[in-house]
Each structure stands twice: as C-alpha cells, then as structure tokens.
Design goal:
The protein is globular. It is built from eleven helices and 13 strands. A six-stranded mixed sheet has the order 10-9-8-13-11-12, sandwiched between helices. Strands 2-1-6-7 form a four-stranded parallel sheet, with helices on both faces. A three-stranded antiparallel sheet has the order 4-3-5, with helices on one face. About 40% of the residues lie in helices and about 25% in strands. Strand 6, helix 4 and strand 7 form a beta-alpha-beta unit. Helix 3 crosses helix 4 and helix 5 packs antiparallel against helix 6. The chain starts with a strand and ends with a strand. By secondary structure, the protein is α/β, with parallel strands linked by helices. The longest helix is centred in the middle third of the chain and has 15 residues.
Length: about 290
C-alpha cells in the first residue's frame, strides 16, 4: 500500500491562503535579509515593508534560499511517520533551493526513514509553481502514488507559462541586475519589459518591450500572451502582482475573461522573495497549456 502524501512547496509559490487551504499545502519560507536582520518570507516581514524601506532610506533586501539543514528539520517528522512528501521548489536556474532540497531528501533517505521526499524543480517561479502544486493536489486526490506524481510533474513543467511586466527597472538596477544606463533609458522611454521564464530550463530572459502607460501596456500584454498559445488549459489563470492598484488587477481580470473562458481566475500577491527582485507595480499572468 502506498504511503500517504504531504503536499509542500517553497513560500515562493504565491498561491494565496484560500488555495493553500483547499489543497492542504505546507510552505517553507525563504529568507529576507533587510538592514542586516534575517526575516522569514511573508511570516515576519511584508512586501509593503520592503518597498517602504527602499523608498524611505534606499535599503534594498537580499534574499537567501532555504538551506539543507532547514529542509531536513522541516521534512523529518513526516518521513519518520511514513509519509511521502511532494515538494515543489523555486526553479533551480535562479535559486539553490532545489539543490539543497535534494541533498536533504537524500540525507533522510540514507537515514532509513520509511517515508520519502520527492523534490521537484519547478523550472518556474511564483504562481508558475502554484499551477504545478494544483496539478499535484489533483493527482493526490486521484490516488496516484508519490513516485508517479513526481514523474508526471517533471514531464509537464514545460507546459507552464510564466511572465510578468516590470513597471520600473529601479529595483533590478539597485540589486545589480541591470545597469544604471539601461534603467534610466527604460524609464525615460517609458519602456515596460516583459520578463519571461524559460520552461525548458527555469532561466529568465527579456521578451517584448512595451512602451507607454502601465494600464495600456498590461491590457496589450494580456492579449498578446493569451493569443500566443493555441492550447491553453481553461482550469486556472493566475494574475500575480507585487503591489498594484486594485482597479488595474480588475482590468487585467476582465481582459483575460473576455478572451478565454477560464474556470477560475486567481489574483494573488507575490511573496517577499519575488517582489524584492521585481519591484512595485509588477504584474504577470501565469497559465498552463495542453502541450
């Protein structure tokens, strides 16, 4: 008889409390270092506090992945009790979390615990991970064993599409992720770059560069993305943002709903880890395709 399964993910999956409860997902938080203090992502620090620290005193946070020891401590009670754990990680191309999780899983396997941890490199971030968590939850409900769920998730991650529009490059510049010249030029020209996640590797690249006011750009971005793929699954669409006006989120929701009939459209706020790298007024749509 197969072991019972715990569904788990890094805090960067950005699902929101309702979906977390629906799918019974456990999170483990990344680290946020601000003013040399170590905080837990969305536990004892918020996105609003991170942005305010930057505006008030130009303090920029650093982020740190979950380490091997933390993962071992997090998983060990479950596997000792005979549970298997499916754990979805932030993409290995942009974080060491997946590698650390694999090392922890191997350490626990070597200990002879009756349960097993299955770390999954999502090749994604934010609610690109959440889409895979939902798929895993559905497979658990259907009675599939953990080993088969892990195989199916890894086979399907190339069908997850994650992208987002940056309103400003100031945070990426402040964190050394783009040059001052590039940031100033983009701001002067009112350019809003689309950052796309490569679902074959988990890396990121700049896609189309939009020009104009954010509201207009986001409307066109949604139309472009939903027209780009012919076999979009209609179950779940995520609208995920760092901080943005509620009316902008509603405009994006109405635009998407007017193009495709999604069963559920979820609006969720990005975790501190994601928001620290992209800055305010960032918004993306994330979805899954059949192929």
């Amino acid at each position: 008889m197969a072991n019972k399964i715990i569904l788990s993910a890094d805090s960067t999956c950005d699902m929101g409390p309702q979906l977390k409860e629906r799918y019974q997902v456990s999170y483990y938080p990344f680290h946020i270092i601000l003013d040399e203090k170590d905080y837990q992502d969305n536990v004892d620090i918020t996105v609003t506090e991170i942005f305010q620290a930057y505006y008030d005193r130009k303090a920029l946070p650093r982020t740190a992945a979950i380490n091997v020891g933390e993962y071992v401590e997090y998983f060990q009670d479950w596997v000792r009790q005979g549970f298997d754990v499916i754990h979805l990680n932030l993409g290995g191309a942009i974080s060491s979390a997946h590698q650390n999780c694999r090392l922890a899983a191997q350490e626990l396997a070597d200990s002879g615990a009756p349960g097993r941890v299955y770390p999954i490199d999502s090749f994604s971030l934010s609610t690109g991970i959440a889409l895979q968590v939902i798929d895993a939850g559905d497979m658990i409900a259907a009675g599939l064993p953990a080993s088969e769920i892990a195989q199916r998730l890894e086979a399907n991650r190339g069908h997850i599409h994650a992208s987002f529009i940056l309103d400003t490059l100031d945070f990426m510049r402040a964190g050394g992720r783009c040059s001052t010249v590039a940031a100033v030029s983009a701001n002067l020209l009112s350019l809003k770059p689309c950052i796309e996640v490569d679902n074959q590797s988990g890396g990121m690249h700049v896609g189309k560069k939009y020009r104009g006011a954010l509201q207009k750009v986001l409307g066109q971005y949604v139309k472009d993305k939903l027209a780009q793929y012919p076999q979009i699954k209609r179950g779940h669409l995520f609208i995920t943002y760092s901080s943005i006006a509620p009316e902008t989120v509603e405009m994006v929701r109405e635009t998407a709903a007017g193009i495709l009939d999604f069963k559920e459209i979820h609006a969720t706020r990005a975790s501190c880890t994601i928001a620290s790298h992209c800055g305010p007024n960032t918004l993306g749509i994330l979805f899954e395709t059949e192929a």
